[in-house]
Specification:
heterodimer, A: about 120 residues, mainly beta, about 0% helix, globular, B: about 110 residues, 12 strands
Chain lengths: ~120, ~110
């Protein structure tokens, strides 16, 4: 397994369009996280899944955002009616679920950079 | 609420010089602390982490960090910086290795040859 992968790596869209990003976590990692990173800032938590269940959503995740992880493997993040303020890097991370080794850590993907024109 | 501050937005050092990046956190319980590095066009890479035990932790690429509970600090150090260390460095805190991570705003490091 080569790590967390994200697709696409770059996306340019016009304001008002819908976009969807995909994240493939490391195999058998139960937890999957989405973060957003704007220019010059650290990543901010958006939401996370334990298997297929979405257990927490940040206040940053407006109703235009929806995330799924239907089979507990890959996840998608959809943004409807994009706005220029949505321009950012969207990062995905995965980790085994709690109960594993204390030395575990989140493994981050390369991110999807979104530009809304 | 959990938060992380990194007082230095940008630091420039000469190659071969020592480096210290500051990090202060606010957390109600014993935190899990992390330092990540992000190079242009690259994903976040974990340099080191701390959750208990020896307060001086060693990481990859010759980095180390010291946890000081009394100062709520977790500063990152390297004795001799290489040009390839130029990147963005993020300090972060979490409730456990499995919980969401709260990142600081980052410190951008430039290295002068």
């Amino acid at each position: 397994d080569t790590g967390v992968s994200q697709d696409p790596r770059h996306k340019i869209t016009k304001r008002g369009q819908n976009v969807t990003f995909r994240c493939d976590p490391i195999s058998e990692h139960n937890r999957l996280y989405w973060y957003r990173q704007t220019l010059g800032q650290g990543p901010e938590f958006l939401t996370y899944f334990q298997n297929e269940a979405q257990l927490e959503k940040s206040r940053l995740l407006s109703d235009r955002f929806s995330a799924e992880r239907p089979k507990g493997s890959f996840s998608t993040l959809e943004i409807q009616r994009t706005e220029q303020g949505d321009s950012a890097m969207y990062l995905c991370a995965s980790i085994p679920s709690s109960g594993g080794a204390s030395w575990e850590t989140q493994y981050f993907g390369p991110g999807t950079r979104l530009l809304v024109l | 609420a959990q938060s992380v501050t990194q007082p230095d937005i940008h630091i420039t050092v000469s190659e071969g010089a020592s480096l210290e990046l500051r990090c202060n956190y606010s957390y109600g319980a014993t935190p899990y602390l992390f330092w990540y590095v992000q190079s242009p066009g690259q994903g976040l890479q974990l340099l080191l982490k701390y959750f208990s035990g020896d307060t001086l932790v060693q990481g990859i690429k010759g980095f180390e960090a010291e946890f000081k509970r009394s100062q709520s600090s977790f500063n990152l150090r390297k004795p001799s910086v290489h040009w390839s260390d130029a990147a963005e460095y993020f300090c972060a805190v979490g409730a456990s290795p499995y919980d969401k991570v709260i990142f600081g705003p980052g410190t951008s490091l430039s290295v002068i040859p």
